[in-house]
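Anyone else keep sequences and structure tokens together like this?

Example one:
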Amino acid sequence: MRYCCTVLSVSDISKARSFYENIFGLEVCQNYGRNILFSCGLALQQNFDWLIGVPKEKVHKKSNNVEIVFEERDFDGFLQKLKGNSSIAFLGEVVEHDWGQRVIRFYDLDGHLIEVGEEMKMVIERFISNGMTLEEVSKGMDVSVDDLQKLLN
């Protein structure tokens, strides 16, 4: 057995496709009209209720019980891109977690929660460029030096 993909229910396949292509740079690898699969393994499905055989009212928006997570190398540049998009509904401001990674959370056009975080390699490099040793980074992030070196390489 192998994992195939995650399927998101969307109300308008064209608008949702455009959102994910323009905001995240995702590439379509399969297009079946009302179902699109991106090369990363994320799929969009219009008429999700029909697909899974439940009434439309059983497909809920903004359930806030799952999030789609991306990491971005140029986190600050990505934040600027988001600020120029009026269709983005944010769930708060940028948060810096205890381990140093900065993240932003927002909703897509259909109310799915998305997290975009600073790429972990960039977090480590930011700490090192601020004068921290790898051992200090290890302690602060609660990650072994070996694991940090793997992320850097």
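And example two:
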Amino acid sequence: MRLRNVPGAREVMIENEYVFTEPEGMKGTWSQVFGNDNPIRIEIGMGKGTFITTLAANNPDINYVGIEKYSSVLLRAVEKQDELQLPNLRFIRMDAEAICEVFGDGEVDRIYLNFSDPWPKDRHAKRRLTSRQFMARYDIILKPDGQVEFKTDNKDLFDFSLEEIKEADWELPVVTFDLHNDSVLNEGNVMTEYETRFSQMGNPICKLIAVRNH
């Protein structure tokens, strides 16, 4: 899917108080950014921000950071935040590969991955956000009892993720291939824009939670 370039989006990102466009070197400083020691949860590839904005509004005692690579996509979330001005929500415009330069060891409580880019070509496997390469990054920034939550409607990507996460020596206490028909796991589920669209099309939503094996 080709992203539509929104004129001026990059300039809005640079000037907006809720967005960090050059976050390298910020690791270890997020409690200062938020002005408290509340848990920090991040969403990588947050799209237009419906999921993370909803979480931030519903959980004022948790800090949230949304990460998005493209200014034109992030712009929609920023517009929501300009209206809501939630004190526990910030955004970063960056490529997720640099995540260990932005968050310190054990600084993050939870990582959300929602409907991530499948990177279908085999040679791009390491770019998938559930690859063993990314799991190694998460291992650094997550607290010992932290977890990764992943949702997708892409069965091939989900199967790949299950194998990669096991290869990375993480455990999978939660796995479902049909989240919306699992009354226990679906309770309190916050939908993303893609999740709403795909479920309306009849696509089952897969979800896993990964925790460390040590």
